[in-house]
From TrEMBL, chain A:
Residues 245-341 form the Pyruvate:ferredoxin oxidoreductase core domain. GO terms for molecular function: oxidoreductase activity. Transmembrane segments: none annotated. This is Pyruvate flavodoxin/ferredoxin oxidoreductase domain protein. The keyword Oxidoreductase applies. Residues 13-233 form the Pyruvate flavodoxin/ferredoxin oxidoreductase pyrimidine binding domain.
UniProtKB/TrEMBL annotation, chain B:
GO terms for biological process: cellular respiration. PANTHER family: 2-OXOGLUTARATE OXIDOREDUCTASE SUBUNIT KORB-RELATED, SUBUNIT OF PYRUVATE:FLAVODOXIN OXIDOREDUCTASE. This is Thiamine pyrophosphate TPP-binding domain-containing protein. It comes from the Bacteria. It holds the Pfam family TPP_enzyme_C. The keyword Cell inner membrane does not apply. InterPro entries: 2-oxoacid:Fd_oxidoreductase, THDP-binding, TPP_enzyme_TPP-bd. Residues 56-207 form the Thiamine pyrophosphate enzyme TPP-binding domain. Keywords: Oxidoreductase. It comes from Caldicellulosiruptor kronotskyensis (strain DSM 18902 / VKM B-2412 / 2002). GO terms for molecular function: oxidoreductase activity, acting on the aldehyde or oxo group of donors, iron-sulfur protein as acceptor; thiamine pyrophosphate binding.
Length: 350, 246
């Protein structure tokens, strides 16, 4: 059945269908409807919902609940995610699954509450202290947000790692038609590490402290192996009209949707352009971009973002200097128009 | 009666400095659990600070929290496993400075777990800096001329702050500077756990403890300091026991 839903609420509904039992959050625009939806549903169904005193409180409650083996979610927006970074680092260090939604707004500082992609670096490069990675999924429609949210819980459990859904204010606030798979059953995962308090077995401890340097190094190497496996197995990317493309656009999330429309318009005008849209921002689809960079007919790349080029570094690393990369971005909560993207393309073709 | 190691303590030898109060307080918790909660689910929430390795000393499950966040983590734990006995174990820097917000709000929500708050008036693990609980006049490495309330402000009285909150069911301040007070501390832990298991709300015991190392005093002298100096600023007693009308 197709229903019309606001992005934030659709993500919340998807989480519940994926077996999310606990939600801890703090209101911040433009993600608050997610928290409100969870309040309405979880308080009635016997789940755990707490509106925490702060983002710090929320993420650490999530840490406690995840330690107990529950499916846990927390959500926020830029400034709140900054506060959660301490907890995210601890979750990663203690190898605890948790789904974190970041409906981005404009930054830095208080910035504004408009749609932006200002947290790419914070999300993909660790954000908190230490050598760790968070799996980052970037939907470009409400329907995809639903699917990726469900997948996020499975990935979090599979790898015992935090997973972030990175959307922007537009995704959170817009209404779109979504369809939920009525036959979907959440995966049940054994969690032999979960702290349950039972006394008739070996004790369990969730912890990220390794005081002996050699032990911490071993732990970090082990995490690195895990991240390598995630890189090998979990990269998701959409490649649109790229087969014969001479110019490759790279863009993610809602911004990529605008770029897709620009690609369509340019194709109608006979221009051979295509779009590569990373769906996993970490792991980044390096190999896919590398492939296009090695193609003779590809002349250059255009990176379009709603920030000042935060993903550009990853695009450059993937292209390895083989082709030129041009960047166009709007910031401050301004969304580029299709025409702007088209005009930028023509300005380069001159 | 044979005096022996409580069953819920592991054989691990503790890393605390000789004469430190943490060992006594650990033992009291262990005795109460052995006596009253042999078969119960138990989950401890470990702090950051001198007691950071507490999970090594007990043979039940633990969650090790970030600095100051133990009461938030314990909230998540207890809400998920409501039939477990859940306690956080935290020093004064942990619960009364960086974690003030977390403890006040856990208490306000009436979270059904017990916070065991060890107050020795210094940041002990980092080398004896001034804590929010450092008493006026006390010299520490970061209040080298003695804490002057006009400069560094006053010491925090967390228990007194928590008493008026509706979600709080039990508040006691105890000490371990002599046998009588050690016994009183055990009784308070027992009662706090009971209050928790009766689902009455948040319970907290502040235990006045010593830090011979950072106080620069031999263990026995440090116990005397609690009696002669610390007690002037922190009164001992049961401040609130909702179920018993206190
Ligand atoms: S530094 Fe102080 S509180 Fe820490 S273990 Fe030593 S005596 Fe105990």
């Amino acid at each position: 059945m197709k229903i019309l839903m606001k992005g934030n609420e659709a993500i919340a509904e998807a989480a519940l269908r994926a077996g999310c039992e606990c939600f801890f959050g703090y209101p911040i625009t433009p993600q608050t409807e997610l928290l409100q939806y969870m309040a309405k549903k979880l308080l009635k169904s016997g789940g755990v919902f707490i509106q925490a005193e702060s983002e710090v409180g929320a993420i650490n409650m999530a840490y406690g609940a995840s330690s107990c083996g529950k499916r846990v979610m927390t959500s926020s927006s830029g400034p709140g995610i900054s506060l959660k970074q301490e907890g995210i680092s601890y979750l990663a260090g203690a190898q605890l699954p948790c789904v974190i939604v970041n409906i981005m707004r404009g930054g830095p500082g208080l910035g504004n509450i408009n749609a932006a992609q200002s947290d790419y670096l914070q999300a993909t490069k660790g954000g908190g202290h230490g050598d760790y990675k968070v799996i980052v999924l970037a939907p470009s429609s409400v329907q995809e947000a639903v699917e990726l949210t469900m997948k996020a819980f499975d990935l979090a459990d599979k790898y015992r790692n935090p997973v972030m859904i990175l959307g922007d204010g537009m995704l959170g606030q817009m209404m779109e038609v979504v369809e939920f798979d009525e036959n979907y059953q959440p995966q049940k995962v054994e969690k032999p590490w979960a702290v349950t308090g039972d006394r008739n077995r070996e004790k369990r401890v969730t912890n990220s402290l390794y005081i002996v340097p050699e032990e911490l190094e071993k732990h970090n190497f082990m995490l690195m192996e895990k991240y390598k496996k995630i890189k090998e197995n979990e990269v998701m990317v959409e490649e649109y009209l790229t087969d014969d493309a001479r110019v490759i656009f790279v863009s993610f999330g809602m911004c990529a949707r605008i770029v897709k429309s620009a690609v369509n318009r340019l194709r109608q005008a006979g221009e051979k352009v295509g779009l590569v849209r990373p769906i996993t921002l970490w792991p980044f689809p390096e190999n896919e971009l590398k492939r296009y960079a090695s193609k003779e007919e590809v002349e250059f790349f255009i990176d379009i973002e709603m920030n000042l080029g935060q993903m550009l570094e990853d695009v450059k690393l993937s292209v390895e200097g083989k082709k030129e990369i041009h960047f166009y971005g709007r910031t401050g909560g301004i969304v580029p128009t299709i025409q702007e993207v088209v005009d930028f393309y023509y300005s380069l073709k001159k | 009666m044979v005096f022996k190691r409580p069953e819920c303590l592991t054989k691990e030898s503790m890393h605390y400095c000789p004469g430190c109060g943490h060992g006594i307080i650990h033992r009291l918790i262990a005795e109460v659990i052995d006596e009253d909660y042999k078969e119960s689910k138990i989950i401890g929430v470990a702090p950051v600070g001198c007691a950071v390795f507490i999970y090594d000393y007990f043979n039940f499950d633990f969650v090790a929290a970030a600095h100051g966040r133990a009461t938030a983590a314990a909230t998540g734990v207890k809400r998920c496993i409501p039939d477990a006995l859940v306690f956080s174990y935290q020093g004064d820097g942990d619960i009364a400075a960086i974690g003030t917000s977390e403890v006040i709000h856990a208490a306000t929500r009436g979270e059904n777990f017990t916070a065991i708050f060890v107050n020795n008036g210094v940041y002990a693990m980092t080398g004896g800096q001034m804590a929010p609980t450092t008493i006026p006049g006390q010299v520490t490495v970061s209040s080298p001329y003695g804490r002057d309330p006009k400069v560094q402000g006053y010491h925090i009285k967390l228990c007194e702050m928590l008493v008026p909150l509706d979600g709080v069911a039990f508040v006691a301040r105890t000490s371990i500077h002599n046998l009588k007070n050690i016994e009183f501390t055990k009784k308070a832990i027992k009662r706090a756990f009971e209050v928790q298991m009766n689902n009455e709300g948040f319970s907290i015991i502040e235990v006045l403890s010593n830090c011979p190392t950072n106080w620069g005093l031999p263990p026995c002298e440090s116990m005397k300091r609690i009696e002669n100096e610390v007690l002037k600023y922190y009164s001992i007693g049961i401040f609130k026991d909702k179920g018993r009308g206190i």
